[in-house]
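Risk register update: the risk that structure generation would not scale has been downgraded. Supporting records follow, first protein first.
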Amino acid sequence: ASPTMSATLAVFHAPRAIPKIQRNNVVPRRRIGSPHQAEDPRRRAKRGDGKKRLGRPSDKSDDNGETSGRRQFLSGGLQLLILSSADDLLAAATAAYMSAPRPETVVYIGVTMDGYIARPDGSLDFLPQPEGDDDFGFGAFLNTVDAVVMGRRTFDQVAEFVARDKVPWPYEGKRVIVVSRTMTQKDVPELLSSKVTVTAQSPSEALKALGKTGFTRRVYVDGGTTIRSLLEEDQVDEMVLTSVPVTIGRGTSLWGFDTKDKRDYRWSVTSSEPIGRGMVKTTYKRLRKK
């Protein structure tokens, strides 16, 4: 189950100041039930009976110190929040930023029969190479994501393909984040410097930052260490695993870690299909309690 996406539309409503000359000419509003007696607004303010008019929740802070304003719930999870001060607007924006849900995460990777995703040296030469326009469905998959988060080793491999083999940059139009504590933005080849952002954040922190932008709903996660880190923290929502009919004996595995709170992770199989060359692509969705 993917995290619930909701949005809040905050409207800053500043009370209009009435010039003094106009205030002196304002006709007091008649009170319902007393047609012959006008109520002086100053008397009403002094009375301070503490009663609130129905349908007008207070704009003041609640018991938790959060400003609520006048809130209306619209269709599609949209909330209309009418605020009466600049401070309230700032508080609402900060709260929305801090509580933004992380994007949905998906892994798309090939796995050998004995459970490895790469050889010990990181080589992927055991994977069948596409022929012609057949990319085993990878292009269609990329169209379902907004951004890519990967580790340094994976980025270095892709960058080498682009520079050495003149392969087109496969993530064109996607925001690409490289998580690494040994790499900086200056280490990115000039050819790709405008296409990649390097961060020293953990994969989990990088996902939270993407969620707070408000423009990222679904993220493709790549690279053994990055995927394993998020799996360990139970932050992977979908896995598309392609079983390759080969055994390599040793290599890099996605597994071999303690699950969060040492509990089992349950998954459902949403699809499974042969894609040629003896390979079978299976899609798993993480089952979580609502």
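Supporting record for the second protein:
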Amino acid sequence: AHRLVTMMNALCLHHHQRRISLPFRATAAPTLKTRKGCHRNPPRASFGDDEEEEQGDENKTPLSSLNSAIELRSKLQEVALVAQTSPQNNWQDVFGDQTAFVYEPKSSSITWGFVHFLGGAALGQYPQVCYDAFLSAVSERTGVTIIATPYELGTKHGEMAKKTRRAFERAKRVVQERNGLDAGENVLPVFYVGHSLGAKLHAVASFYDEESNDNSDSNSRSGSKQHFLVAFNNASATDSVKILEKFAKELLSKREGGGGEAASSQFDAIFDRLVPFAEVAAKAAGLEFSPNAVETLDGVANGKFKSDKVTLLSFTNDELDQCSSLREALADGGVRTNSVEIPGDHLSPVYLDLDKYAKMNPVMNRLSGVRIGDREAVERIANEMVKFLKS
């Protein structure tokens, strides 16, 4: 039952990486006060057809949807395996257990800093594939080493944040030792970069920094710590399900190139069966995240978030973005931020070049010509991060 709920939660959050332009509006949730007395109103998604959706629950088929969910995850896993075994792959699975992937720039012999990257829901489990275009461009242009730590979705965001932070610290020590970098004498800056849910996890991870510092070496206690948070999202599980249903129908509008009607039909069929299962499971389980939306902003507002520099990047066409709420909380916590808005939507950091992997392995031929994302949008994001790293 626990594994079923965990998988459902992954489906609930799948929209975070795949939003186009959805027909919903942000409305205010019940007003809650933090301990500092600052009002927090995490936006909720409001839909005009909620009643109709509830009435149709008896027609849902959870078991067939579960099969589709497994099929979808298998496809992403298949792409990741093809990428990992390809001679063209530049990402190293440091420990061989897919807990940390390292990208070291070919343009520089010795790194001068580390980026800890956390992707958004679902696609963040395969950051070396879904965010490769963005991260590799930043690394090659600046000379920083990227360490991306995948995570499986769940409701305990605090535990997820701590687990990915530990994986990053382990991988960083390996890279430092391999390159002859003494952590005690040559402390390098660390840049925490996250997209959507990944941005929330970085914020939550900072709540535990003092605790982790008491049990770690000087490598993790010292050095500059800066944050570049993209399209911060702090949604509830139930809202995530509803947004997902609206989004699933429009997934393929992000595709570039061909792929043919067969590929389109294949993806459509998966999502048509996947979404109803997520709805039914969410309503039955009554899921909530820990920390929840209000608790996360409360922790930030009360000074648990520490950073030497913070940039919040938002997109002009992104109803899922909640950077404004985070900005207010950071101000209450005494953290100065720089806010940037550029053209794009919530999915802009993701570019999934399935055509590239289809050429690597005949097994992937059915995905030939399929590209999900916008290269120009990725380039704009990379430009902003390069400015952040060099400032």
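The radius of gyration is 20 Å. On this basis the risk owner (M.S.) recommends closing the item.
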